[in-house]
Amino acid sequence: MLNVHKIWLFSCLCVVVIVVLYFQAEIARLEDKYNKLEYKFAQIHSEPRQFFPKAIERVEDDLVVIYNRVPKTGSTSFVGVAYDLCKKNHFKVLHINITANMHVMSLSNQYKFAQNVTRWNDVKPALYHGHMAFLNFERLGTNSRPIFINLIRKPLDRLVSYYYFLRNGDNFRPHLVRKKHGDKMTFDECVEKSQPDCDPNNMWLQVPFFCGHSSQCWKPGSHWALQQAKQNLVNHYLVVGVTEEMQDFISVLEAALPRFFKGATEHYLNSNKSHLRQTSSKLEPNQDTIDRIQQSNVWKMENELYEFALEHFKFVKKRLLSKEPNGVAQIYFYEKIRPK
């Protein structure tokens, strides 16, 4: 009789557990359904409470994007995507070619370039790209300012890539003879012999590219230049990605600037643009070489800028591409507008 009583109690307990689990599942389901309905409701009611200029298409057609590309950061691959999309998405792509591949413009050319870019309506919307330092359009008195974007790379990786690029070329133009063609000295040997081609000062390029046209920007090891580069990166660039996360950089741009980059991520994944330009016969440096390079102040400062850019990019990416806890994208709208 006692066993029967225990069985009865156990059965009742099982029934209670099952009922509790059922109601917990139902509550979770209803909460999820409520969250989705709440989101849809917010979307419906946010449409008349979001302000968009009536001539929104005209505003987007006035867009100018400048990509002041740093050499050997994967810029050719990214620009290849832009050239492939420009006809489909109806925008122009223009290459900025400065005499003798100089990275800074004369003062008169700075002014003329700024005026030309902002007033040349026949080619808008447009993406300009070229190896040039950041240019502050506000200083040059323009009524409108372009959107700046860029990519940055680990400084030693960029230097090693450029070292072998000058000697072995790349797969983009394999038959073009570079100025160090025939030089078989490895980067490790170059560092060991303290040759000028592998001098750490040669890494001083990404800092000045973000710093700008001031003479102080181009002095290797300038702390002022590093701080100016950081400020410009945060205050004047829409997005700065890193070479190692090219796909995410393109996805962020597609989300932020669909007028230019709609379909860019899919195109990048399904085309040959992800490795459009690779340096031929590149050897990775050994640990002794790495340790020696990393002792230099220039590497430390260039790497500080890289780490700063990487952290900021991850922050931007997380908030742009991540979903809210209920699985939907972030929205904004206005409410409690008074007087009615």
UniProtKB/TrEMBL annotation:
The keyword Oxidoreductase does not apply. This is Heparin sulfate O-sulfotransferase. SUPFAM superfamilies: P-loop containing nucleoside triphosphate hydrolases. GO terms for biological process: heparan sulfate proteoglycan biosynthetic process. GO terms for cellular component: Golgi membrane. Keywords: Disulfide bond, Glycoprotein, Golgi apparatus, Membrane, Signal-anchor, Transferase, Transmembrane, Transmembrane helix. One of its GO terms (molecular function) is heparan sulfate 2-sulfotransferase activity. Belongs to the sulfotransferase 3 family. The keyword Repeat does not apply. The chain crosses the membrane at residues 7-25. It is a single-pass type II membrane protein. Homotrimer. It comes from Diatraea saccharalis. It is found in: Golgi apparatus membrane.
